[in-house]
Specification:
With 365 residues, this protein is α/β, with parallel strands linked by helices. The chain has two domains: 4-162 and 330-361, Medium-chain alcohol dehydrogenases, catalytic domain (Quinone Oxidoreductase, Chain A, domain 1); 167-304, NAD(P)-binding Rossmann-like Domain (Rossmann fold). The protein is 26% helix and 25% strand. It contains eleven helices and 16 strands. Helix 6 (192-203) links the parallel strand 9 and strand 10. The radius of gyration is 21 Å and the shape is globular.
Length: 365
């Protein structure tokens, strides 16, 4: 096959350039995805700023149409050529204890381990054939162990690009956190993951959803309220624990989801505003301190979470397809393949345009 593919390829720290790759031949067991849109994740910022190793194509929040698919792959995934799908980032082995128990996102094959080439979209280097391992491209290669989910045609592309944040919200606020009717949920951080957690908590039936952030997050607080948050708290102006106690008549929060990227005291804040029996979900990367005393008699479960399960992806896609939430408020900006550097910098808050909550890459050049 002589057709060539353009892809935004990271070659160094803060350096992404357009490169051409051959479009691979497909066997009975694999497929090619024609990219419709690919979301930018917070982890893309870290990878962009701290790049090490070989060139790779970024992008692991990938949405597209099955351009070519082998007969065995179509049967395995329950799809056919032309279907619109989203693709999880993990490319697991299928045989280890984690894969066999359905927790394939913990498979060693998808992890960054010494002496091992990682197999995960957005991370696998282009030196691994056939190179197309990232969604900031026109096409994505789907090997036999890819994990795909169908997505309805009526969902706008910019909403579809939110499938990873929505899956994470479902995993963290609902499946791990335990958001449910009658419960109060506090979400620390009004970024794309925090806002997706608001939607998940409301979908789970939480009685009260409280979102905290900084003074510069005023617009994001407004978005949180549009998505269903009952209260927002600017922690630079008032105490989170005092406000939560006031809202809950002294009871505190049943669930706290920490998706903030900074602030060494955010876990302490979570412990202070938690109810006597509560769950704290630690999803935000950072160097937060975890104190173990000074909070009275409490029974707290703390969970350090990683990604989302198959079930969480399915729940997120169902929520997305329902149209019950104004997801356009989260999906704020789109860029083409020639402007991936600018997109990541804007998403990181280091360049214009301002106000990016979630950004996506379209395959146009």
């Amino acid at each position: 096959m002589s057709e060539r593919v353009w892809a935004a390829t990271q070659i160094g720290v803060g350096q992404i350039e357009l490169r051409e790759y051959p479009l691979p031949e497909i066997s009975a067991d694999d497929a090619l995805l024609k990219i419709e849109i690919a979301g930018i994740c917070g982890s893309d910022i870290g990878g962009y700023q701290e790049f090490a190793g070989e060139p790779r194509i970024r992008g692991h929040e990938n949405v597209g149409f099955l351009a070519q698919i082998g007969a065995n792959a179509a049967k395995r995934w329950g799809v056919r050529e032309g279907d619109r799908v989203v693709v999880e980032q993990y490319l697991p082995c299928g045989n280890c204890r984690w894969c066999r128990t359905g927790e394939y996102r913990f498979c060693d094959q998808t992890d960054k381990l010494p002496g091992q080439t990682i197999l995960r979209y957005g991370n696998t280097p282009v030196s691994v054939a056939p190179s197309l391992w990232g969604g900031f491209s026109q096409y994505l290669y789907l090997p036999p162990n890819a994990i795909v989910h169908k997505i309805p045609a009526h969902v706008p592309a910019t909403h579809a690009a939110l499938f990873v944040p929505l899956a994470n919200g479902m995993q963290w606020a609902y499946l791990q956190g335990g958001a449910a009717p009658g419960k109060t949920v506090v979400i620390q951080g009004p970024g794309q993951m925090g806002l997706a957690s608001v939607v998940a908590a409301r979908e789970a039936g939480a009685q009260c959803v409280i979102v905290s952030g900084l003074s510069r997050d005023a617009h994001r607080f407004e978005v949180a309220r549009k998505l269903g948050a009952h209260h927002t708290v600017d922690v630079e102006r008032e105490s989170l624990s005092a406000r939560v106690k006031q809202i809950t008549n002294g009871q505190g929060a049943d669930v706290v989801v920490n998706v903030s990227r900074g602030g060494r005291s955010t876990v302490r804040d979570a412990l202070e505003c938690a109810s006597k029996i509560a769950t704290i979900v630690l999803a935000g990367p950072g160097t937060q301190e975890i104190p173990t005393k000074g909070f009275g008699r409490k029974l707290i479960t703390m969970k350090w979470v990683q990604g989302a399960s198959f079930n969480a992806f399915e729940l997120g896609l169902q929520l997305m397809a329902s149209g019950r939430y104004p997801l356009s408020e989260i999906s704020t900006h789109q860029f083409d393949l020639r402007h991936v550097n600018e997109a990541i910098r804007a998403f990181a808050g280091e360049a214009e345009p301002a106000g990016v909550i979630h950004a996506s890459i379209r395959p146009e050049v």
